[in-house]
Amino acid sequence: xxxxxxxxxxxxxxxxxxxxxxxxxxxxxxxxxxxxxxxxxxxxxxxxxxxxxxxxxxxxxxxxxxxxxxxxxxxxxxxxxxxxxxxxxxxxxxxxxxxxxxxxxxxxxxxxxxxxxxxxxxxxxxxxxxxxxxxxxxxxxxxxxxxxxxxxxxxxxxxxxxxxxxxxxxxxxxxxxxxxxxxxxxxxxxxxxxxxxxxxxxxxxxxxxxxxxxxxxxxxxxxxxxxxxxxxxxxxxxxxxxxxxxxxxxxxxxxxxxxxxxxxxxxxxxxxxxxxxxxxxxxxxxxxxxxxxxxxxxx
Amino acid sequence: xxxxxxxxxxxxxxxxxxxxxxxxxxxxxxxxxxxxxxxxxxxxxxxxxxxxxxxxxxxxxxxxxxxxxxxxxxxxxxxxxxxxxxxxxxxxxxxxxxxxxxxxxxxxxxxxxxxxxxxxxxxxxxxxxxxxxxxxxxxxxxxxxxxxxxxxxxxxxxxxxxxxxxxxxxxxxxxxxxxxxxxxxxxxxxxxxxxxxxxxxxxxxxxxxxxxxxxxxxxxxxxxxxxxxxxxxxxxxxxxxxxxxxxxxxxxxxxxxxxxxxxxxxxxxxxxxxxxxxxxxxxxxxxxxxxxxxxxxxxxxxxxxxxxxxxxxxxxxxxxxxxxxxxxxxxxxxxxxxxxxxxxxxxxxxxxxxxxxxxx
Lengths: 299, 360
Ligand SMILES: Nc1ncnc2c1ncn2[C@@H]1O[C@H](COP(=O)(O)OP(=O)(O)OP(=O)(O)O)[C@@H](O)[C@H]1O
Ligand SMILES: [Mg+2]
Hints:
The complex is a heterodimer.
Chain A (H helix, E strand, L loop, with lengths): L1 H34 L15 H9 L3 H33 L4 H13 L2 H12 L6 H8 L9 H4 L1 H26 L3 H9 L4 H12 L1 H17 L2 H6 L11 H11 L3 H25 L15
Chain B lengths: L3 E10 L2 E11 L4 E5 L6 H9 L6 E6 L2 E2 L10 E4 L11 H10 L5 H14 L15 H13 L5 E5 L7 H18 L2 E6 L2 H7 L2 E6 L2 E6 L1 H6 L4 H6 L6 E8 L2 E4 L2 E4 L6 E7 L4 E4 L3 E10 L3 E8 L2 E8 L10 E6 L5 E4 L13 H4 L4
Parallel strand pairs in B: 3-8, 3-9, 6-7, 7-8
Antiparallel strand pairs in B: 1-2, 1-4, 4-5, 9-10, 11-12, 11-14, 12-13, 14-20, 15-19, 16-17, 16-19, 17-18
Helix pairs in contact in B: 2-3, 2-4, 3-4
The complex binds adenosine-5'-triphosphate and magnesium ion.
């Protein structure tokens, strides 16, 4: 019996375990290792040192600005688009009997188009010349005199918008299916009990979305923290360093300045909150409820 | 309490006509059962009463007031769904209290009414649990309390007992009936189960494909079914239906012939309830081919010149062996005759098949 159990664990969990080890655990260990060295552009390690951490805490004058920008970027993208707007889209497109699917596909398009194409469209829409979409509208419809240069003047807003338009569809899809999963008879019961549309949203729909919302928030926080693909394409982190979020800063330090050890140390500060958020989400939000119990019990 | 009236009520879902035009009056304080096969429009009728579905045509009247467009919240109708539909994230207390949220009931009074409703259905000690922590019967009681807490003028029960085991079903049947009598609320019970309908309701409405086949007391439906469908639907084990032909005042069934005056020529169906038949020395010759003990009754299937006939005998003893040659006697006043063209019963057309029947 015991042997059988052990064999089952190895057969069922083994392959996934190997992948987790190779691609999730190993990189973290390697990163931790490098963070305590002086590895530079030549990839040579000559000594183990705490210098990278000293520098991060005391000697890097750009870091505070990068961190506060990252906070603003993540917070507003999440709060306005990925969660709130995703929720609004899910609620409205499930409430209208026809055409909901069409609206949802519209919001899925940015996610499906290649990132370069998506960003080219953005640049075409907001660039500082008179021909850009924004300026055509601003000058012809609203009578603005001089063309607006949003890329130079409001770059933070642009990175939030461009990431948010993509992120909203993620929340929308998950929340839509969660809303669809609420049995019809609960809506009927609420209606018969006297609840109006808003009360139904508040008392029937929202409680059913608690776990999906938690999940979206955690997942999107982590993914916004570590991705900079659209930012580097749209603004390149500029003008100056105005849109250089933490992940992009780490990338530039590591691969463009060749400060591998310092980059690894900075990356650690991303990995640690990531792990902490994931663990605390597990513990405090009782994420186990999101996971189904196995249908078949393996002896 | 309310008197309910359907005036030519119609319900369509896009092109599908579910209820083509229903006329029905339910009196104040009455307990009626809505009986019919799956998909005949029972739930749809209830949902229109509760304000969940809008009728597509006709008038729905509560105490002579037209309520077609009246919002569910202004109708004061309590409903128990087949699936109970308890709110999974709320405790029993919050579930029962939910309807009062929308009625501007002062806090103290709401608390009192929730407690009273819970005590009425005996779930007062479960107040802090969630629906997932309750048994099926407990969930059903909570659903009932939620329907009763707002003092409804109309109580709708959509197959509330179908998920329960046999014993609990029996208990709940008695409890609901007693409760309804005590509160005097107009109640409509939807059910597939004719025993449930006959034991609980004052009147039974038998539906078929969106139309009412017959309304009457349990006895009416059982002894005097107006149509072949009602005869076949009511009664367990099902009624024997034999096919016959009337030709110049003679009814021919299989190889038997009986005089029958006063009806035209054509095909007819004869209904014989298994419990009205008995084996004896006189009657139609028959040979037992199957026996089915059903507890306190035995169901026999016998081969006769009229065709296969089911006979129900009370007692737990199997008195007739397979292969036994015997005769089946029946009381002419219990024979039902239906015109096959219309499916309607001919009143008073009884006949003495056994006296003239002859063996093959
Ligand atoms: N929303 C809907 N759209 C289209 N057709 C529907 C809808 N709801 C019900 N129907 C149809 O209406 C008919 C009656 O349905 P209803 O639910 O009233 O049956 P029922 O008598 O309650 O059956 P059951 O005993 O199985 O619950 C069925 O044929 C069903 O397919
Ligand atoms: Mg139904």
